Automatic annotation (TrEMBL):
PROSITE patterns xref list: ZF_RING_2
GO MF, any single term: zinc ion binding
Organism the protein comes from: Caenorhabditis tropicalis
Domain RING-type: 161-205
The entry's keywords: Metal-binding, Zinc, Zinc-finger
Annotated protein name in UniProt: RING-type domain-containing protein
InterPro entries per record: Znf_RING, Znf_RING/FYVE/PHD
Positions of the UniProt region annotated as Disordered: 1-46
Amino acid sequence: MSDPMSRGAAERKSTRKRQLPVRYSEDNEYETKATAKTNEKREENRLQKEIDQLKSENDDIVGKNETMIALQKEMETERDEFKRKGEEMRLNTQIIMEELRASKTRIPDLQKEFQEKCNLHKAESAKLKKMTNELLQLKNNVDPEHEDKNEREKIENLKKCPYCRGYFTNESVAPLVLKCGHLLCKRCCIVDYEQNGSIFCIGCQNAEPIANVEEIDAFPICHSILSIM
Ligand SMILES: [Zn+2]
Ligand SMILES: [Zn+2]
């Protein structure tokens, strides 16, 4: 079965072993043992180194793992904070939306209320104005001084031409009596005739046409007015 060559080699080896002297054999055994021990020690050192390496790697991994756990925790905290803020924002938005909806329904009510108040104010203002006028009227009725003033004003107005507001005189601003019975100064009569061919009476709000300037000369002068000047 085994090949003849290797069997031959084995035989040669055993033959040589047999031929070794005893002392040499012991030495050889001792050497073998020492070599084995050295190898063992070397192996042990190698294993120790490997163990140290593995330990160091393990420490590294443990360190990294701790860092990762810390990071994870940090991330979880941040995520919780984010979540909390999100929820807060959602609630705030909800509140704002509700307030907005409420104010939307309130606006027409407020507008209506405002309009009502405006109307009330207007009515009160009108009432107040009316009352003030009534009071003023009452005051005028009971205040003789005021009555005198009114009378004086009326008389003063009679002394003036109703159109140019100039005081009547004997000459160019003479108080002429128009056909309707109202007064107008001579100067205004001439100007009106020259510009429009008619004379406009303020009292009647009517323009009376005249043919020539002699018609103006024919208007009588109101001596009663001149007598109170
Ligand atoms: Zn006049
Ligand atoms: Zn008139």
